[in-house]
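Morning!

This is the sequence you dropped in the shared folder:
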Amino acid sequence: MSENTKLWQQVFVTDPAAVKPITGKSYRGNSPKPYWLIERATQTFGPVGIGWGVIVKSERFERLSETDVLHVAVVSVWYVWDGKRTETFDQMGGTKACYLTSKGALMVDEDAGKKSVTDGMVKCLSMIGFAGDIFTGQWDDSKYVEWANELYHPKEAAKVHNLRQPALGGIGDDLSVEDKEFLKDLASWVTDSAKENDAQTINTKLAEYNLDETQSLYMQSFLDPKTRKALGMTYQKAA
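The structure's back. Tokens below.
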């Protein structure tokens, strides 16, 4: 991972529980829930107003017809990264504030302004990687969604697949999403390497990561019983 993509990779994967289908549009797809993005940005940068925030550059109403009126907002997101304050490019959000329904009723959306700003905020955050897996089309792959669900909800995913992880007594609950992703990838490497390398070779490589006890146990929870039996005691001694 290069420094240029560090933030991008950190916020790229979306929690499946925070994804909703796009409705009311002429196209299909998925979008991240805005409030989850606010939470994710807060986890990454800090509280709103301190670590990040939304700037409304301009807003206006545009009449599309005698009955249809569009609200448009131009916004940007500022954020603090590596101790420096920076800002995304401006993005536009739009919402119909007034329109005629298919049944001939005139509808007025009093929340149009809020929705337009939120729409623009989501687009700004997407420019720096937030929910990048959705915007790059990876969410169309069911196997990818399954992997993302296992990343954010390993216990629930294990139940779905009728799998059982070792009882860890809550170990790993305090690990970040990024740490969990790394440790799961490391477990996959251990499983693949166990087919070709001896325990000492794998153990030496694992020692280079200097995992603490929590990280080690969490990583081992993704190993199958046979691999854990072959490497567990050796790895514990090495730790």
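Headline: The longest strand covers residues 69-81.

More detail when I'm at my desk.
O.
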